[in-house]
Amino acid sequence: MSERLPIIGVSMGDPAGIGPEIAAKAFADKALYGKCRPLVAGDASVMEQAVKIAGVDLGINAIDTVSQAKFEHGVIDVIDLKDVELEKLAFGKVSAMGGKAAFDAVKKVIELAMAGEIDATVTGPLNKEALNLAGYHYTGHTEIYAEFTKTKDYTMMLAEGALRVVHVSTHVSLRQACDNVKKERVYAVVKLAYNAMRDFGIERPRIGVAGLNPHASDGGLFGCEEVEEILPAVEKARGEGIVVDGPIPPDTLFSKALGGQYDIVVAMYHDQGHIPLKLVGFTWNETEKKWNSVSGVNITLGLPIIRTSVDHGTAFGKAGKGTATEESLVNAIDYAVKFAHQRIGRMGR
Questions:
Q1: How far apart are CA 103 and CA 128, in angstroms?
Q2: Residue 329 CB-density burial (10 A; 0-12 exposed, 13-18 middle, 19+ buried)
Q3: Strands 297-301 and 307-310
């Protein structure tokens, strides 16, 4: 592992949400600077406001280029995009201005990573309605990254502790998700999962592949996708020496993975993977009417650059109150650092 600390670019997220304030809280921890050289891409005035909301003692270093960054605890280096009018910003409100600011920040960290000026990117939460209101018609971060990096085969990976999940499809209807379960796509996602775990330092990853139907169709009683699409993909990957099992009934697979039988799970669609992950990482306190824990990381696999993200939304209802937790963002930065060290080590930098 290289001793050089990787440069991590964090996109601010929608300024009307909690992204800026959780970034301020994360950057307030001195330990962060022992792991990486972090900076934020966004609006410097918003980050200055976020520091006050978060109640942390930090200054803002507004910069135009990475070379101007100080990378010193006590000061947040902000690539200042100057795209928010504070007097027009309303917390918790969907707006074209907020959508544009979030998009600008994401686009900037992608450009910096593609140019080799930063080692990894971490994205704060954006609001899809605001994004589309601003004229950017994407279903989420993943699709933005795919377009600007010209990536064809990619997938979302969620991680929380010992549980890691990748998806055959994500932001499509359930009907379309079923139609997307094709052997070519399942095989591609198995390979992406395998390569990701290798990048993470697991020499011989163990992969569990979920079935689509109840009981993984129970021998064809509840559908044909397992036999016709999923099993051929598993067998092809297995023929290449990959340790992979499936299709496995989804109602038992995630428990096995959480218990250590598998390093990563291939889920067939969005909720099949998201629900068990968030059951592990999200803890609701009914007495206090709040989340005690909101942890987990969202990672896009298959890209030429590193992208990790918080595994939660903009939380408009909490924005501006200083109560939002930075836990998921810290986890995302930690994952970005680990992946960056692997790449830096392979490149001998």
A1: 10
A2: buried
A3: antiparallel
Tally of CA atoms within 13 A in the half-sphere of 248 that contains its CB:
21
pLDDT tens digits for the chain (349 residues)?
336 899 999 999 999 999 999 999 999 999 999 999 999 999 999 999 999 999 999 999 999 999 999 999 999 999 999 999 999 999 999 999 999 999 999 999 999 999 999 999 999 999 999 999 999 999 889 899 999 999 998 888 998 888 999 999 988 999 999 999 999 999 999 999 999 999 888 999 999 999 999 999 888 888 999 999 999 999 999 999 999 999 999 999 999 999 999 999 999 999 999 999 989 888 888 988 877 777 778 899 999 999 999 988 999 999 999 999 999 899 999 999 999 988 776 655 4
3-class DSSP string for the chain: CCCCCCEEEEECCCCCCCHHHHHHHHHCCCCHHHHCEEEEEECHHHHHHHHHHHCCCCEEEEECCHHHCCCCCCEEEEEECCCCCHHHCCCCCCCHHHHHHHHHHHHHHHHHHHCCCCCEEEECCCCHHHHHHCCCCCCCHHHHHHHHCCCCCCEEEEEECCEEEEECCCCCCHHHHHHCCCHHHHHHHHHHHHHHHHHCCCCCCEEEEECCCHHHHHCCCCCCHHHHHHHHHHHHHHHCCCEEEEEECHHHHHHHHHCCCCCEEEECCHHHHHHHHHHHHEEEECCCCEEEEECCEEEEECCCCCEEEECCCCCCCCCCCCCCCCHHHHHHHHHHHHHHHHHHHHHCC
**Cβ-contact 101, 14 below 8 angstroms:** yes
Quick one: which of 7, 85, 87 has its CA closest to 43? 85
By CB atoms closer than 10 A (0-12, 13-18, 19+), residue 29 is: middle
Q: Distance between CA 84 and CA 62 in Å, rounded?
A: 14
Query: d(Cα 159, Cα 297) in Å, to the nearest integer?
Result: 5
Single-letter amino acid, residue 171 = H
